[in-house]
Specification:
Number of strands: 15
Largest sheet: 6 strands, mixed
Structural class: alpha+beta
Radius of gyration: 27 Å
Helix content: 25-40%
Number of helices: 10
């Protein structure tokens, strides 16, 4: 039975791939562990390495001044079709209900109960399903089961454990899903007979996949809440800065007129141009906080990257850095201003943390339906705390940083139906990766 989880839960958001937990799903050691992936590819099976087109690489040497992911589909069983979600159920409840029905239909069980945490409601919820013709458990028994006084916290997650309950006839089994305190999530079932090893393996496999989706749902909800907070902050900050900037711009314009033939004319002109730049950046910042206003057109990725590099050229030349990027054009349907904002933030971080005379690499690979973009530096890399919070609004370890740059970059990529994640490289330094659908909006 195939469950299209993401299209039901958060169409705009992508699963963070356990990056915030420090268990990066895109490291070499973990790539094969993700459902739906093969050959170490960071994309689902439909985008294979054989679809990749080669790119030449050019080098920008400043010392010489020369110039995903789509919603994931996870199969819980070999069946080829998925029953429709029960009418009136919420997506997370529907998922648990469907899994309960599937297990009961495949196992000699009388009753199955799934306890899960709903972050939207802020409470633990329960799904109970009975085998056809099976007598329902008495109310006091269900109350006892949901009281969790019988839970054994020493049982490893997604491991089926025999459980003896005097108040319940039959053989009881407990399978913890996520030991979330104070709302542990678990699967409990009652069988008329002891389960065979094959049946136990089926329960554990299903529990593992269900636990993964419950955790991803929790991360998606947290990410959505952070993005909503960021949108509110961006809008509020933008409106608060509008009036002061307008006043400064007016006085700067008056100075330019009044000092037309004065030696101070140049300084007045610089003030006016700087204010205009700030006003433009503020407009773009507010614009980036409104995902519904994307203006996607066919753009050359290489031209956008070069524009971002040009804006950072004085800083790059000061540190004598090398910037390497492909010399082949790559056309994507994106919002040019917003994607430039993403590269401005990523390259600014890379330049800041790169050692003098270091190298910053930009690479992109074109797959059948998606594009993978990587920005890597030779800096100190990220700490465990950084990996967990790098995209959290207002988190920054740069002196004077606002902590909004990477959060805004992530929101922009999410608005483009893509993904943005970070990892440390084995050779040192950090690498930010972006996946964008080729037909993005």
């Amino acid at each position: 039975m195939v469950i299209r989880l993401w299209s039901e839960i958060f169409p705009r958001l992508r699963a963070p791939e356990n990056r915030v937990s420090g268990q990066n799903l895109y490291t070499r050691s973990n790539r094969r562990a993700r459902p739906g992936l093969q050959d170490g590819s960071p994309f689902p099976r439909r985008a294979r390495r054989s679809d990749c087109h080669g790119d030449c690489v050019s080098t920008l040497d400043t010392r010489t001044n020369t110039s995903r992911r789509r919603p994931m589909k996870v199969s819980f069983s070999p069946a080829t079709t998925a029953p429709a979600a029960p009418a009136g159920l919420k997506p997370l409840q529907s998922l648990c209900q469907l899994q309960a029905e599937q297990l009961v239909s495949q196992l000699p069980v009388r009753c199955l109960l799934i306890a899960y945490y709903d972050p939207k409601l802020g409470t633990r919820q329960y799904v109970t399903h009975y085998a056809p013709g099976a007598a329902h458990l008495p109310g006091e028994t269900l109350e006892f089961l949901t009281s969790q006084t019988w839970l054994d916290e020493t049982v490893p997650a997604t491991t089926l454990q025999d459980l003896s309950l005097k108040s319940v006839a039959g053989v009881g089994y407990l399978c913890p899903l996520i030991p979330r305190d104070p709302h542990p999530e678990y699967l409990f079932l009652i069988s008329e007979v002891a389960l065979s090893p094959d049946h136990k393996q089926l329960v554990e496999r299903t529990a593992a996949l269900l636990a993964r989706h419950l955790e991803l749902h929790q991360q998606c909800w947290r990410q959505k809440s952070e993005i909503e907070l960021l949108e509110q902050v961006v809008q509020r900050t933008g409106h608060q800065l509008r009036n002061p900037l307008a006043l400064i711009s007016l006085y700067a314009e008056n100075l330019c007129i009044g000092l037309a033939n004065s030696p101070a004319s140049e300084q007045a002109t610089i003030i006016r141009e700087t204010v205009n730049t700030l006003n433009t950046n503020l407009t773009e910042l507010i614009y980036c906080g409104q995902g519904a206003r994307l203006q996607a057109t066919r753009q050359d990725l290489r031209a956008i990257v070069e524009e971002s590099i040009e804006g950072l050229r004085p800083w790059i030349e000061c540190k004598q850095l090398h910037i390497r990027y492909p010399d082949s054009a790559l056309m994507l349907a994106v919002d040019r201003l917003q994607l430039k904002q993403v590269f401005d933030n990523l390259l600014s971080n890379a330049v800041h943390f790169s050692p003098p005379t270091g190298t910053i690499d930009l690479r992109w690979r074109s797959f059948q339906d998606e594009v993978l973009i990587e920005v890597s530096d030779q800096g100190p890399g990220l700490s465990t705390q950084d990996l967990q919070q790098v995209f959290t609004p207002f988190y920054s370890r740069r002196p004077g940083g606002t902590g909004l740059g990477l959060a805004i970059a992530k929101k922009i990529i999410l608005d483009h139906q893509g993904s943005l994640w970070v990892q440390n490289l084995p050779t040192g330094g950090a690498q930010f990766s972006i996946s964008l659908p080729r037909g993005s909006r």
